[in-house]
Amino acid sequence: MESKRQQKVASLLQQELAAVFQRDLPHLFPGLAPGISTVRVSPDLGIARVYLSLLLVGDGQAMLEQVRDSSKEIRLALAKRIRQQLRVVPALSFFLDDSAAYAAHMDQVFGGLTIPAASTDAPTEEDESPKPTPPRPRLFADEDE
């Protein structure tokens, strides 16, 4: 579980990285900028794991390699934006977020299932009658019922 400080830093990094991709470094990613789905920060705030959502990009792995190759430039642009909030800019590790693709796959799997219809048999009167309670055990010999 992340501490509140980790969550705040992760949120700040997510917002600022999105701004870096869209405003500061659009020339690195012509056409489409990668979306940032999640940022996870280590407890010492030294490493940030950035999960990129590359749904609209044709070849996600190639775009991920391009982002990893320009990670120094991205970190420098990020440092310029957050220098007032953090002392040290965390090292950035980029990963592909495939949760949307996984969700689409699961939708396809669930859509292909054939579920038989439930039986429409009405319950009989025997099933609705209350069951008799078993007799209570006697603990003492002089106990009356």
UniProtKB/TrEMBL annotation:
Subcellular localization: Cytoplasm
An example Gene Ontology biological process: maturation of SSU-rRNA
Chain residue ranges for the region called Disordered: 116-145
Chief location bin: cytoplasm
Entry GO CC: cytosol
Superkingdom of origin organism: Bacteria
GO molecular function, one term: ribosomal small subunit binding
Function of the protein: One of several proteins that assist in the late maturation steps of the functional core of the 30S ribosomal subunit. Associates with free 30S ribosomal subunits (but not with 30S subunits that are part of 70S ribosomes or polysomes). Required for efficient processing of 16S rRNA. May interact with the 5'-terminal helix region of 16S rRNA.
Family: Belongs to the RbfA family.
Subunit text: Monomer. Binds 30S ribosomal subunits, but not 50S ribosomal subunits or 70S ribosomes.
UniProt protein name: Ribosome-binding factor A
Species of the source: Hymenobacter aerilatus
